[in-house]
User: What shape does this take?
Amino acid sequence: MHLPLVDAQARRISYLRLSLTDRCNYRCTYCMPEAGVPLSPKAEVLTLEELARVVKVLRQVGVRAVRLTGGEPTVRHGLVDLVANLAELDLDDLAMTTNGHTLADLAPALHRAGLRRLNVSIDTLDPVRFRAITRWGDLGRVINGVEAAKAVGFRNTKINVVALAGFNDAELPEIASWAWEHDATPRFIEWMPMSDGELFAPGAFLPAAIVRERLVQAFGPLRPDQPSDLPGVGPARYYRTRSGERVGIISAVTEPFCETCNRVRLSATGQLHTCLARDESIDLRTPLRSGASDDQLLQSIRAGVQAKATGHEFQPSGCGGPRQHMVAIGG
Ligand code: SAM
Ligand code: SF4
Assistant: This one.
């Protein structure tokens, strides 16, 4: 039995965000430059076996929840096989965050393979503005995806919404109501200044306090709710409306939750990021490809986790984030 994975602040790591690819079929303006980002050469991207091996190793030291992400995880070949493989690991939670573009087609196979929860990103319910924010997106397809997922048995779906002043701030209550009508929980996310602030527009930053205000105006008082379906897994703070509907707010910038951070991220190229807001990472690809044993991999992982940053320095002005793009790390 291995000792749990704990950092220098005594934070226990129990959650892995696993990026399957740095490619994406959308180009959301807050996540990626229009021209895209330099893509990692295929040879540098971890194989499905390598991804699964890292999960197995982390599972031995107490990682109980895994979220598949990207780029866009559904563009990764072999996704369903990987899900089937990970579903055998007896995790408490195996979930995926997706833009939903191909979800209508994939939902049945993903559910059969053992994926149980989905987060789908929808920033507006206006098809024209949806196209504008995603550049390449198709709202109709995404809505079909949410409905197909529900029909095949996905429960507790979350709708991720990046809250942006002058874009969707007036629409937040409508998006929340839409999510509830679809048996989903809306989660409003503060815009994080990734990409060295290059994509960030401080005037469009919408603090969590204003998001809450908009929701209170529309639905009445909000009372704090349980942290998550699995306590401690996610970064959102949850609230209930007077009529019992649930809503989450992810306030990474103005109300950071670093003190209770329980996660690490593995990029598609095998770099372990212990903090989304920092560029430093631990290279696991080299040891993975040079015959390292599980114990040797764990040694590298433990050393990286020991050095996990105490907190981030994201600023609403756009400073304080990493040089890397969100699409490369996976959110
Ligand atoms: N492609 C998938 C998707 O869009 O759901 C998964 C990857 S995406 C990077 C994960 C989440 O990060 C999405 O909900 C997206 O809206 C969010 N996101 C991307 N860039 C962001 C930023 N700069 N600040 C806050 N959230 C961001
Ligand atoms: Fe792609 Fe997701 Fe980034 Fe949008 S948020 S560009 S869908 S990775």
Notes: The pocket of iron/sulfur cluster (ligand 2) is lined by residues 24, 26-28, 31-32, 70-72, 99, 121, 134, 326-327 (CB under 6 Å). The mean pLDDT is 94. The longest strand covers residues 93-98. The chain has one domain: 15-329.
